[in-house]
TrEMBL record:
Family to which this protein belongs: Belongs to the sodium:neurotransmitter symporter (SNF) (TC 2.A.22) family.
Protein name: Transporter
GO terms for cellular component: plasma membrane
Keywords from the UniProt entry: Disulfide bond, Membrane, Metal-binding, Sodium, Symport, Transmembrane, Transmembrane helix, Transport
Bilayer topology: Multi-pass membrane protein
Length: 580
């Protein structure tokens, strides 16, 4: 997609989307990604199947849609990315904007390993029979099974599980054993970052036909897989596990926390990507239709993926002669175990495998692109002058960011990699994100205020938000996030992978990773209070007063704008592109 140098009342010369539909498609492309294909099904499986859908849909209604609407309104009105928009809305909590950038960068350092695994499977698919189709391989153990056998031992594992664990990962027994570097995965990780770099470096100027192909391609593959899977023996048992709730599970707080975390992860709340993209909307754009299109499309994609994966679950349980709830699959490995098992039953199995993993590559690059872009854009906004003086070209900054993330991702391609991945994902995608969501809602709905947010929307579109959104912003979302955050801390469960529980020192590293993003919130608050003039009470009052409001009053609340997160600076040409 391209950005036009448009003109709006608030900021002449500000870039805007060439066509408004491009923002909607870009938002859907940003939200719909690997999380829909692997995170939603595995959280659903861990949380009791159908029991997960109840809190998931409720969280979508009362938190997902309203909070996405809130982010898009603020981004479109402030005409800034997350760092500057939140600093202008609530200087005291400007650190929330910095935290969104930090969490996006941390996630992009380990998120690319899924693309790496996808590339490994993609290249392994160019052979017949597929290497995970039988148990006649050097890495298989005696308890491997590749056929329907009612007398199979409950301790057996499928050929696809053994290919993932013993061929690709060659995983160790735990995080205590680092193992050696997997050179094949190392080179594929490098290739994944090279592909990502050229996506950002070149940009993609999509025609209408390419856009619609990119949007429809994943659904064509998923529908084809679903049609095949429902005909497999045991498929209905898997689907029944997916849609029939185990009501006792709803009493477990972890199910509700996972549902909320999945909504935030999948839609992108708290990551800053969609807020940055909305800042380039036409000032009078009707943001509600974009909000509904992005959030509903995203959740429907997750549910479709759920039907596909759980029908394959039923087939696997039939293969191993055990209940669906006792299958030994967990974490991101799920998508590399269950889907390949389905391919083995299809005519022309290699073709289906190639198409699927190519789709996975596209979705992965799409999601990864948005997270890296937040980091690049924020650096350009904040330090554009000095960086360009040193690096001379913007492409060199992109290269520096990608190279740093690549180096930080190397531990994931060692034999201990799956344990490192699961540890980082647990503390970043669930723990950090809940803290970040809490303070973002506090900053925007609490201190900036629902009244100001409503006034912003009326100024842009001529209409105020309806009573449902106001109630959600004022009461429902803040209350639910507070309750979930409190109980997350009280009933916190250590990270685990399958039956493996991490030792205390590894849990400590996990908390350090979590604090790497959360720490910016108190640091930002202390910095704001330090640089503002006046007594402590005066500083506190000024710190919760929106910067734009003080400008209108002609006040001198911010004597040193450069110190308060460079609020007045904006790059001449924004580094926002989309790859739809």
């Amino acid at each position: 997609m391209e950005l036009d140098q448009g003109t709006v009342d608030q900021e002449p010369g500000r870039a805007t989307w060439k066509r408004q539909i491009e923002f909607t498609l870009a938002g859907i492309g940003c939200a719909v990604g690997l999380g829909n294909i692997w995170r939603f099904p595995y959280l659903c499986y861990r949380s009791g199947g159908g029991a997960f859908l109840v809190p998931y849909l409720l969280m979508l209604l009362v938190m997902g849609i309203p909070l996405l609407y809130m982010e898009l309104i603020l981004g479109q009105y402030m005409r800034r990315g997350p760092v500057h928009a939140l600093a202008k809305a609530c200087p005291l909590l400007k650190g929330v904007g910095l935290a969104t950038v930090a969490i996006s960068f941390i996630m992009c350092t380990y998120y690319n390993i899924i693309i790496t695994w996808g590339l490994y499977y993609l290249f392994s698919s160019f052979q017949s029979p597929l290497p995970w189709q039988s148990c006649n391989n050097t890495w298989n153990t005696p308890n491997c099974t590749d056929r329907i056998n009612p007398n199979t031992s409950s301790h057996s594992s499928t050929a696809s599980q053994q290919f993932f664990n013993y061929r690709m990962l060659e995983r160790t027994a735990g995080v205590e054993e680092s193992g050696v570097l997997r050179w094949e995965l190392f080179l594929l990780l490098l290739l994944a970052w090279i592909l990502l770099y050229f996506c950002i470096f070149k940009g993609i100027k999509s025609t209408g036909k390419v856009v619609y192909f990119t949007a429809l391609f994943p659904y064509v593959i998923l529908l084809a897989l679903l049609i095949n899977n429902v005909q497999l023996p045991g498929a209905m048992e898997g689907i029944r596990f997916f849609i029939v709730p185990n009501w006792e599970k709803l009493l477990e707080l972890e199910v509700w926390v996972n549902a909320a975390a999945q909504i935030f992860n999948s839609i992108g709340i708290g990551f800053g990507s969609l807020m940055a993209m909305s800042s380039y909307n036409n000032f009078n754009n009707n943001i509600l239709k974009d909000t509904l299109a992005i959030s509903i499309t995203n959740s429907l994609t997750s549910i479709l993926a759920g039907f596909v994966i759980f029908s394959a679950f039923g087939y696997m349980s039939h293969l191993q002669n055990i209940p669906v709830s006792e299958l030994a699959v967990d974490g991101p490995g799920l998508v590399f175990v269950v889907y390949p098992q389905a391919f083995a039953t299809m005519p022309v199995a290699p073709l289906w495998a190639i198409l699927f993993f190519f789709m996975l590559l596209c979705l992965g690059l799409d999601s990864q692109f948005a997270m890296v872009e937040v980091m690049v854009t924020s650096l350009m906004d904040e330090f554009g002058g000095p960086l360009m003086k040193f690096l001379r070209h913007k492409e060199m900054l992109v290269l520096a960011v990608c190279s740093t993330a690549f180096l930080l991702g190397i531990p994931h391609v060692m034999q201990v990699g799956i344990y490192v991945f699961q540890l980082m994902d647990h503390y970043t995608a669930i723990v950090s994100l809940m803290f970040l969501a809490f303070f973002e809602v506090l900053a925007i709905c609490g201190l900036y205020g629902v009244r100001r947010l409503s006034a912003n929307l009326k100024e842009m579109t001529g209409n105020r938000p309806n009573i449902f959104f106001k109630v959600c912003w004022m009461f429902v979302a803040p209350l639910l996030i507070t309750i979930i955050l409190v109980f997350t801390i009280i009933q916190f469960k250590p990270a685990r992978y399958e039956d493996y529980v991490y030792p205390p020192w590894a849990q400590g590293i996990g908390w350090v990773i979590a604090m790497a993003s959360i720490i910016w919130i108190p640091l930002g608050a202390l910095h704001t209070l330090w640089v503002l003039p006046g007594s402590f009470t005066e500083r506190l009052v000024k710190s919760i007063t929106p910067y734009a409001l003080e400008n209108e009053r002609g006040g001198d609340t911010y004597p040193n704008i450069a110190v308060i997160s460079s609020l007045g600076r904006e790059t001449e040409k924004p580094h926002i592109q989309t790859n739809l």
